[in-house]
Amino acid sequence: MRYDPRLVQPMREELTKIGVQELRTPQEVDDVLGAGEGSVLVVVNSVCGCAARNARPAVTLASSHDARPDRMVTVFAGMDLEATERARSYFTGYRPSSPSLALLRDGELVFMLERHQIEGREAAAIAADLTDAFDRWCGAVA
Question: Which residues are catalytic?
């Protein structure tokens, strides 16, 4: 059962207003993640409190860092069910987790934060993990 779209709209906008692109269909996911070019941050968004208090604010903080992914995209667990399932298929070796933050570089998963690594942590600490990953994997990699 999907959530009421009116309920999740503000949660979607929290990310889209900072330039994160929504992927709502499996085809949109494949078009971005299947291309295998550059760096992509994938935010698996959720209605839960740890998405609201920790994950989305962390992405907002990290989005102003000097090193950033070429693209930042999001799928919404509990809303865009098929798109979320397809995005998770690119996270080889990880179980479904909402929220979660995945960084892919040239089609390869290089960094992952699962719910258990998000829940109960401050947004600034999560943002620091993200920006460390951005520094390592976004832009020129030696």
Answer: 48, 50
User: Mean pLDDT over all residues of the chain?
Assistant: 95
Q: Identify the domain containing residue 57 by its residue range.
A: 5-137
The answer to whether position 142 is within a domain reads no
Examine residue 76 and state whether it is found in any structural domain, yes or no. yes
* CA–CA distance, 54 with 94 (Å, rounded to integer): 20
Write out the two tokens for 15: 């990310």
Residue 30, Cβ density class (10 Å: 0-12 exposed, 13-18 middle, ≥19 buried): middle
pTM of the full structure: 0.96
pLDDT tops 90 at residue 58: yes
CA distances from 90 to 14, 49, 118 (A): 24, 25, 20
Cα distances (Å, whole numbers) of residue 101 to 5, 105, 112, 132: 22, 14, 6, 13
Give the number of domains in the chain.
1
